[in-house]
């Protein structure tokens, strides 16, 4: 897995110990903190933070994940593409909180794991998703 440096940094020790649940949770907490810091937002909880920061109709803490991306010939991407990528960042960021962190905060990990509702493999997959979200966050600009 080609994990983002911050994801690697926050999850490394847990990952080495095969504690994939803690590896995911710690990396997600770092992502949330970095989103909050870069945007200057004070909104909580995290799912509301992600909705606020990545939705350009919500206010002054908006982060555009399109940044300075351009086509090879220097033209802008279509408005549909820009909206799709921006909305994707918002919904994936909210989704990783709703479908990842929240179940781990409210259910016993052993039950989640044994039932396969939320497995160790899910944690590893979500570390990869966090890496993708971090790439967009790194290239975002406050608008």
Helix proportion range = 55-70%
- Structural category: mainly alpha
| Helix run count | 6
Identify the strand order in the major beta sheet.
1-2
The radius of gyration over CA amounts to 16 Å
Strand content: under 5%
Could you explain how this protein is built, in words?
- The chain has helices spanning 5-16, 20-39, 46-54, 79-106, 109-115, 120-138, and strands at residues 63-64, 141-142.
- The chain is an all-alpha fold.
- Strands 1-2 form a two-stranded antiparallel sheet.
- The chain is globular.
- The chain starts with a helix and ends with a strand.
- The model has no long low-confidence stretch (mean pLDDT 94).
SSE layout and pairings?
Layout: H1 5-16, H2 20-39, H3 46-54, E1 63-64, H4 79-106, H5 109-115, H6 120-138, E2 141-142
Antiparallel strand pairs: 1-2
Helix pairs in contact: 1-2, 2-3, 2-4, 2-6, 3-4, 4-6
Q: Nutshell version of this structure?
A:
The protein has helices at residues 5-16, 20-39, 46-54, 79-106, 109-115, 120-138, and strands at residues 63-64, 141-142. With 143 residues, the protein is mainly α.
List its traits.
globular, 143 residues, mainly alpha, two-stranded antiparallel ribbon, 6 helices
